[in-house]
Amino acid sequence: MFKKYFLQILVVLLLIGVAWGLYAVGKNEEKNEQSIQTSIIQKTAEIFPMRNWSIDEPEILAKSAILLYSNQKDNILFQKDTNQILPIASLTKLMTAIIALENYNPEEIIKVSAQSVKVNGDKGGLIANEELTVKDLLYIMLIESSNDAAMALASDNPRMSYNEFITLMNSKAKELGLENTSFIDSAGLSPENKSNVFEMAKLTKYALGFPIILDILKTPESSIYSIDRKFIHNLTSTNKLLGKIPQLIGGKTGFTDQAGGCMLTVSNFNNNYLITVILGSDQREWDTEKLINWAQEAWLWK
Fold this sequence. Notes:
Oligomer: single chain
CATH architecture: 3-Layer(aba) Sandwich
CATH superfamily: DD-peptidase/beta-lactamase superfamily
CATH topology: Beta-lactamase
Distance between the termini: 74 Å
């Protein structure tokens, strides 16, 4: 009888020991999870800058502007009339580049049509019937803001009509949630190519997912040859801030009489992107430089 009770007590003690062990393991896992979450929160706090309120916000000439810091999430550091829908001029070409890269092989060859060469604007110096790769046309379009190259990309590939290309541009805008962004042409000549600075900043962030786009936007000068090497295009970036601001790594300009001066830039702050967008400015470079300099002074970067 004694042995029977002894065995029962031993079994109960053993079960209590197992239960305690499982409880201890659970508490330890919970503690580890809390520790990991705390670490993530601390790391995020270290990445995001803190505002120095002794520095006032800058006054700029642009009708609309935004300064977007993109790390784990998007944080607006500065904004001016961000919901105002305005013509975006050649900032349009960022979407043109995206559609070209998502639908064409960068190495496929396009013969430039006489119609594309006749479009308004003489940047890029394209010649009717010369052959260039899609990649070459992207360089010419984004470095020198060539309207010819934008038209060639949209209309001279036999696999897609011009109207189909423009439809894809607008469909992509909807896909990205850019509800106030619309396109009439691939170069940005029409004042009906419209957006607001917040949506253009979102589009810029998406475009940075294509390494070739960032490589082109940071290129101050380049030389592009036609396939038969009969023609050479010596390109100089329209972005006058390249090399002037150490943090700035790339950008795109735009101008029409209706849009005024437009500009978007990408800078490296804390190994994250700082995106500026300026619309409707008589001094686009001045406004952009002022915003980037202000970001360095008014925010404490670790």
